[in-house]
Amino acid sequence: MSSSGPALSHHGDLYRYWDAVRRGDAIPARSDIDPLGMVQLLPFLGLIERRPEGYFWRLVGTAIVEHFGRDPTGHQYACDLCRCDDGDV
After folding, report:
1. Domain map of the chain by residue range?
2. Distance of alpha carbon 75 from alpha carbon 30, whole angstroms
3. Long-range pairs, 75-82, Cβ under 8 A, ≥24
């Protein structure tokens, strides 16, 4: 199996969960999403928080941490992609 195989599988699993909890709406309500309903996906998920000064990693799954080689929690989102200092974006 190629290295992209498992990642694509997780995307499909996440889509199926999302589709099930949205109950026909365009997107699910925040209250519809239960982390216990997708425990196997949590290592692959990250939450981005919008603040007045930009976008920041709020929660980072362990697989993302392994991919980056560090934990970007609390860092500005774009900086983790380009390895700049938090104030440079």
Report:
1. 1-41, 45-89
2. 24
3. 77/48, 78/54
Give the C-alpha separation, 87 to 85, whole Å: 6
pTM of the model: 0.69
* CA 18 vs CA 3, 74, 82: distances in Å: 24, 26, 30
Q: Which two tokens stand for residue 68?
A: 């980056």
Q: Structure tokens of 53?
A: 């000064």
pLDDT in tens, the chain (89 residues): 344 555 568 889 999 999 999 988 999 998 999 999 999 999 999 999 999 999 999 999 999 899 889 999 999 987 755 555 545 44
